[in-house]
Design goal:
It is a single chain. The chain is an alpha/beta fold. About 45% of the residues lie in helices and about 15% in strands. Strands 5-4-3-10-11 form a 5-stranded parallel beta sheet, sandwiched between helices. The protein has a 4-stranded antiparallel beta sheet with strand order 6-7-8-9, with helices on one face. Helix 14 packs antiparallel against helix 15. The two termini are about 35 Å apart. About 40% of the residues are buried. The protein binds zinc ion (ZN).
Length: about 475
């Protein structure tokens, strides 16, 4: 069975053909670690997780690479605004390095709670400066760069295919990007590869380079690191739809200018999560985090379930009502599975001929550009089918959950009695006192004790929240 995906580059859905038979290399743009991920960001990572697991389901050996941007990303994707890391550092009175590690950890904790598989390679921009410098040098040797006012720019006029991903004219690209006029750019769409002339005083993250001490522009890290880990012909590159006109367009320009051939075969983009008609953005201030949803009484997997109910290329209209509906449906599904499991009788023979049609239906939907809503319908149909016995249903649920990752066979969340809740709060407070005293051994002992009670703690913004481990 073929695996069909929609390719932004061609504007068509096509059967996936890998560069090397049986293998799939995927590069996904990762977080900029200056703040918590919001649920719009997390929706994109859920989509990419489904993509990775679907390729594995189709028996591809997947290598998934994701970067962590811990330097170089200005507020606007096109070289304007403040430095995001410096902004985080100023906001919280911590060093940029502390900010980067803190939010990187918070990001992977969110992923863990959402059952998102950790990529095979996670690469930090700050640990790949030499790779970026080599790539900029290659572009320089080929005549794609110029230096103005101390910064090294990529000249898009030298790369005729510049607008092929966004499928827009240069005028449209320019009109859409709200670019502040940088008088040093020859073309307003040119972008910085290396900054030596930082407009920010006390820029802390700086490195020596052939062009002087400075730091990389944002786009170069993805080209340099993807090619380092996946080679210069890559199967799939994905990210949020907002990356198409600037970030991914610039990535293509610099990568293909350097290699002289097509760089990525399939570009996949996840649509926005929208609240009250507008896209969720960190710069907007009041953005929603996963922890906020948990504090409001939801489980991380309620949110994952909500994401799977719509297709990744459609906008997801988020509200607490829709999340609440997803929670109800998810609990109903788990309840149904639980009673099905209780009805299993040992020794009933498994009949593959009864199961294979469902497996094919399921794979057909997943292989149709990750149609998770239809795949969920197949799951419901399996549960309703009286011709299947519970043991067969269990095997199918287990099989489908390799992609869904909804812990479908884990018993429903235990209800914590009020007395336990009081005890948990006391222990959390006790641990916080130890932390204030910097008595890490005692604080860790209590964390372990709570873990054994089935409680997971999250420390954020000077406070501690907890949730029940499923
Ligand atoms: Zn990127």
């Amino acid at each position: 069975m073929d695996f069909y995906i929609y390719n932004t580059l061609t504007g068509e859905k096509a059967a996936f053909k890998p560069v090397s038979a049986g293998k799939a290399g995927i590069y996904a743009c990762g977080p900029t670690v200056y703040n918590y991920a919001h649920i719009g960001n997390l929706r994109t990572y859920v989509f990419e997780d489904i993509l990775v697991k679907s390729l594995q389901y189709f028996r591809y050996q997947v290598k998934h690479v994701m970067n962590v941007t811990d330097v170089g990303h200005l507020e606007s994707d096109s070289d304007t605004g403040e430095d995001k890391m410096a902004k985080g550092s100023e906001r919280e009175g911590k060093s940029v390095w502390e900010i980067a590690r803190f939010y990187e950890n918070a990001f992977f904790e969110d992923c863990r709670r959402l059952n998102i598989r950790r990529p095979d390679v996670v690469c930090r921009a700050t640990e790949h400066i030499e790779d970026m410098i080599s790539l900029i040098r290659a572009l320089e040797r080929k005549g794609y760069t110029y230096t103005a006012n101390g910064n090294v720019y990529f000249s898009i006029d030298k790369f005729p295919d510049y607008s092929k991903l966004a499928d827009m004219t240069l005028d449209e690209l320019q009109a859409g990007s709200r670019i502040e006029v940088d008088p040093h750019k020859k073309n307003p769409l040119d972008f910085v590869l290396w900054f030596t002339n930082s407009k920010f005083k006390n820029q802390i993250m700086q490195w020596a380079s052939p062009w002087g001490t400075g730091f990389p522009g944002w786009h170069i890290e993805c080209s340099a690191m993807s090619m380092k880990y996946l080679g210069d012909s890559i199967d799939i590159h994905c990210g949020g739809i907002d990356h198409i006109p600037v970030h991914h367009t610039n990535e293509i320009a610099q990568s293909e200018a350097a290699t002289g051939h097509q760089w990525v075969n399939y570009w996949l983009h996840g649509e926005f999560l929208v609240v009250d008609g507008s896209k969720m953005a960190k710069s907007g201030g009041g953005f929603l985090t996963l922890t906020r949803l948990i504090e409001k009484g939801f489980n991380a997997l309620d949110f994952r379930f909500l994401c799977l109910q719509s297709r990744y290329r459609k906008q997801l209209r988020f509200s607490f009502e829709t999340l609440s509906d997803a929670q109800t449906a998810y609990r109903k599904l788990k309840g149904r599975i639980q009673s099905m499991v209780e009805g299993i009788h040992e020794g009933q023979p498994v009949r593959p001929e009864k199961m294979i049609p469902y497996k094919n239906l399921f794979a057909g939907h997943i292989g149709d550009d990750l149609n998770t809503p239809n795949a969920l319908t197949v799951l419901w149909d399996v549960l309703k089918d009286e011709a299947l016995h519970p043991g067969e249903k269990q095997l199918l649920v287990e099989d489908f959950d390799r992609i869904f990752s909804l812990d479908l066979l884990t018993p429903p969340e235990k209800q914590i009695p009020i007395s336990d809740e009081v005890r948990i709060k006391e222990l959390v407070e006790e641990r916080n006192r130890y932390r204030e005293e910097k008595n890490w051994a005692e604080a860790d002992r209590i964390r372990r004790l709570l873990f054994e009670m089935g409680i997971i703690l999250s420390d954020a913004n000077g406070g501690t929240t907890w949730e029940v481990r499923l």
